[in-house]
Structures are given as C-alpha cells and as structure tokens.
Amino acid sequence: MKKALTILLLTALMTGLLAACGSSKNEANNSTDSGNQKVVAWAWDPSFNGKALKIAEEIFKKENPGFELEVIDMAKADLEQKLNTNLAAGVTDGLPDIILVNDPNIQKYVNSYPGTFTDFTDSVDFTQFSQYKVDALTIDEKVYGIPFDIGVTGMFYRTDLLAEAGYTAEDLENITWDQYIEIGKVVKEKTGKFMSTINPNDEAWTSILLQSGGSWYITPENKGNFVNNPVMTETLRLYKAIADSGIAKPVTGWSEFVGSFNAGDVATVVSGVWQIASIMDAADQKGLWAVAPTPRLDIEGGVNASNEGGSSWFVLEKSANKDLAKEFLGATIGGSSEFYERFLTEAGGVGSYIPSFSSEAYQQTSEFFGNQAIYADFTEWSTQVPGITLGMYTQEAKDALKNELPNILNGADLTKSLASIQKLFEQQVQ
Amino acid sequence: MRGKFNKSSLIGWQFVLLPSALILLFSFYPMIQSFILSFESGKGNVSHFVGLGNYTRLFSDPMFLQALFNTLLYLVIQVPIMLILGLVIAHLLNSPKLKLKGFYRTAIFLPCVTALVSYSILFKSMFAVDGIFNQMLLNLHIINEPVAWLLDPVWARVVIILAITWRWTGYNMIFYLSAMQNVDPSVYEAASIDGASKFRQFVSITIPMLKPIILFTAIISTNGTLQLFDEVVNITNGGPGNSTMTISQYIYNLSFVYTPNFGYAATVSYAIVVIVAVLAVLQLKVGGEKK
Predict the structure, then answer these.
(1) What is the ipTM of this complex?
(2) Which residues of chain A are at the B interface, by a Cβ-Cβ cutoff of 8 Å?
(3) Measured between alpha carbons, how far is B134 from B127 in angstroms, rounded to an integer?
(4) Closest Cα partner for B61 from B222, B277, B278, B264?
(5) Is B63's CB within 8 Å of A428's CB?
(6) pLDDT tens sequence across B148-168
(7) How many angstroms away from the CA of B261 is the closest CA of chain A?
C-alpha cells in the first residue's frame, strides 16, 4: 500500500513537472491569439532601437487605436544567441513577431534558417530607400526585411587642432588616405595629438576602407575576396601605413576608443553617423567639431563615402501576428517620412528613407558642430556609398584577416599573407 | 531476510529515482544528442550527416589548433603556478604564530567570489594603454612609453594568466588549508625534534599528506582551464589576432558568431571531453594512490 502510494506520488510529481514544461507553451500561444492587436519585438539598445519602435507605434496608433507593441530589450549578443538556439531547435513559440538584425547577419540568417523570415518584396516600395541598404536585404531577388538605420561614415575632426596645425576645412574636403596620413604627421608634430586611434582587434577600419572602394571581405558568391583584390591590397597597405606612421594611438577596446576623443587625445574620428551621440558627450568640446567626407582610396572606384554598421527589421514567418507586424513596419519604418524625421530629432538616428532627406529635420544645423548641417551632409554622402553584398560569412572572413593582421603589421609579404588569409577563410567555411 | 533487503533497497531506489530521471533527461540525453550532432555539418537548420567528416576537419583546422595551443599553454603555465602559490599561501596562513589569520584568509579567498565578468573588465582597464598598470610603471621609470599589453600576443597571454591566477589561487588555497588542519601537529613536532627544517617539513610532510587534495585540485583546475571562456572573451576577445582565443570561445564563435554550424561546434566540444578524460587519467596515474 505504502509502496503504491509512493510510486503514485512520484508519478504525479513527474507528470506535473513535464506538464509544467508543456503548458507554458500553450499559455504563450493563447496570449498572442487573444490579443490579436499585439505585436512583440526584440531589439537591443532601448534608447535607440527601442525608441524607434515606440515612435513607430505612436504613428501607427493614430490609424489603428487598438494596436499594441511590446518591446523586449536585450543585449545584442543575447538576442542573437537566443534567436540561433530557438531556430536551431526548431522552436518558434518563444520567438517574437519582429526582430532586429544587424546587416552582416542578414544573409547568414536567411540561408541558415530557410522559410523562417517573411518576404517583404511586394509590400514595401524599396525604391524609396538607399540602394545599398536594399541590396543587403536582397537574397535571390527577394527582400527580407525593412531597411532601418544606416552607418554612413564621415571624418569628424577637431577644428581647433587642425587649425593649429595649419589646415582649413577646404584642406580636408575629399582627400585620400595618403593625404590623411600626411596631415596626421603634421598634426602630431605641431599639436602633440594623435590623428586617430587604431585597434588591431577591431575590423571597423578595414570595413570602412573596403566598402568605400566597393569591395568586401567576401565575394557575392560567398568566396574569400582576399587574393587578387586590388581594394583589399590597398586597404591593408593603408592600414599598415597608418600603423607605421605613428599618427594613431593604440586602443584595446570600445571604451578606450570613445575615451580617446572625449578626452581630446585625437584630432579626427572616422566613423559612422551614429557616432555623433558619443562625440557630443564631451560637452566641453562644443563648437570645436566639424565633419568632412571620409577619405578615399586612391584607386579606381574609390569614393569619399562609406558605411559602418546599420541594421534592419525582420518579421518571423511563423509568427501568429505576421500580417499585423508586416503592416505595422510597412506603414511606419517602411514608408513614413514622419517616422524618420522624429527618429532623427528624438533619437539622433539616420535612416535610409530618401523622401525624408528633404525634410526640415534633416536640414537642421548643430551648434556642437559649429552650425554645420551635419545630417544633410551625411545623407548626401549616403547616396554615394557603393552598394556591396555583405554575404553570409563576414565574421569568419574578418577573423581570418585578424589572425594574419599582426604578421602584416610586422612587415610580412602582403601577397603571401593574403593567400594565407584566403586559405584560412576557406577552411573555416567548408 | 531477503524480503527485508528488497524493501529497504526499494525505498532507496525511490529516493534516487527522481534525481536519476532528471539527470538522465537533462544531462545524459543532451550528451548523447550532442554526440550524434557531432556527425552532422551544415549551416543552422540546413545540416546533413557527414560521418567522421567533422573529426577529420578538426585536425586540419588551423583555428582549432590555435585555440587548442592557447588553451594548453594556459594549462601548462598557469595551473602549476597557481597550485604551488596556493600551497605556499596555505602553508603560511596555517602557521600558528600568524596574527589576523581570518583577515588574510578572507582577503585571499575574496577574488574567487567576484563575478567573472566584472573582474575581467577590471583587468582589462588595468592593462589598458592608459591603464593604472602602465601609469605605475611610467611613474617608477621602468618603461619610457606605455606598453599596449593587450595588443601584443605574448603580453596578452600573460595578462590572461595573471587574471586567472588572481581569481583562482584563493579557491585552491582553501582546499589546502582545510587539509593542512587535518594533519596532526604532533607529526611536525616529532620532525622538529628530529631536526628537520621548516622547509624540509613542508616538502616531506605537508605535500605528501596533501597528495589526494593536490590531485583533486589539479584535476578540477585542468578541467576549469580547458573550459576557460569569460576571461578571454572579456579581456581580449581572443585577440590580438586569435592569439588568446580558447577552445570554448571557438565553440561559442562557431555556434553564435559565425554562420552557425552546430554539428562542428559539438565536435569541438567532444574534443574537450576527450582531452579532459585523457588528462584526468594521466593525473590519476601519476599522482594517484598505488594499489
């Protein structure tokens, strides 16, 4: 009797446990079914991406009062890890309706998890967006998301330091990287300040240089693009030249990088438009900054415009509220000038929606940047950024390059180094 | 008699039934599943059976071999340093003449209760180009210009080794300390009467008496080092180049940073399993009790 009771209790406990695992799933389904006007989104950086969604929600609510949006904020790495594990396990219940995707991950996700993300090809007018953003979202002639913020680059510079070294704004317009190095040497000599920072662990610089020459680490066919690629060769030559010239202060991480210009250690920062917020953090440098176009590669096809970073919005194909999520994104981030104007004014975010560029918000001047109409400049440069295919192995290629970078900086033969990077990359993606 | 034995054994089984079921479900099942997964390759959900393909790839994968080399380097250099340091500190703290024992013990144990990520970030900022460490060396006129510790392959590894030693020495020390307190003081007394020096006593009495504990700490430290992740990711993120990347970080990269190849990541995980097993057997052979 006792024995039977114990066994019964144990079984009850076990089934209870298992049932608990199962039922949570059902609840999640119910809540999304009943609240059919509610959409859940995952995003990182609540003050930027989260803020953008909130603005979009307000705009969408005017026409659809019953609409509700829940933004779940998590760190970028956590979000990517969660998405990957859920999709690999084939579990879509725990996933949101809308998800933010970093541009280099777009092809990777679409190819690794076929049928998981919604096709937006016919629901949004993509001719209204900068071409290179749409290119990044296009796979096999289908567009898999809504272009969001861009990372068009510029050369932020300290007007006071460059004036001290004897340079005016005209001297910095549309220069080449070799000219940049020469200016840097003078700045270092006359002011004692560095021209820029350098971090061999960070591939931002090589990315900016490559894209300004219309090239990338990998070819559109997802093959390594290191050997016989003049843009790559020139990029690495310049990288070494900058490192050797002594104009760059070595930093080891993001906070040191930001710290270096906030503390006034460097005269220029070549970075994406989103860097404006960090530069403006140093309130004591108000009025001392300006922005010039990105230096260019002195080769055929090199332009004074590039891109760093940027992300897009995806909708999950199996989401219960797929149509609502699509409609919401399409009507706001995918086609509302009002959204982009407010996004710029309230969160400092620059999008790639061309109709908004002529708006008042994009023409505003900034006191911090010596009354320059910086956003108008950035958006103009954004139209010149060469379109590239990011492919699906960007990170592998960057790591293969990073592996060889110390040797390159130590003066190894560039042709040989590029061949070994290519080989390493091919081994990584087999 | 037989019936009684059965009954008590049944009650015993009832106690272990639930935990066993849970261990089977959450520990053994994933192990088997990941072993099966290690024979598949592909990207994300699109994977296929490749037989031993992943295992052959492993031996020709320069990135894996680099990570393996780094991890073994930490192991060979860091574990002996840490264990010897732990033993010496434990011995000093065990001295009956020492005052403020509790304070020292707490102070040395404290690092290993700090959060992995926060202490890693602390080390990162200490060894930054503008960091306190460079400032100190500059002020002492040992160096003329700041050293970029984390941008040099050799120094970056030194910083990682310093960091893990700082964090885990106190942890091992506690094991030694408690073991030392179990050694009968009369043994030392007898040795003193026989004229053995303090050093001689440490080498000939303390260390042999502590042998099982030393073996235990050696195995758990080996295990821990082979799974090293947080420190490297937070201090150097594997750089410069990939010169500080560990196997665990490589597994993470394969699963979440690169185009996900969970099959190959599982294969690399099983490489760690094999290495841990081999090293544990070796350590038991070298340091274990002779039967």
Answers:
(1) 0.82
(2) 3, 6-7, 10, 13-14, 77, 80-81, 84, 87-88, 90, 108-109, 111-114, 199-201, 249-253, 255-256, 259, 392-393, 395-396, 399, 402-406, 424, 427-430
(3) 7
(4) B264
(5) yes
(6) 899 888 999 999 999 999 999
(7) 9
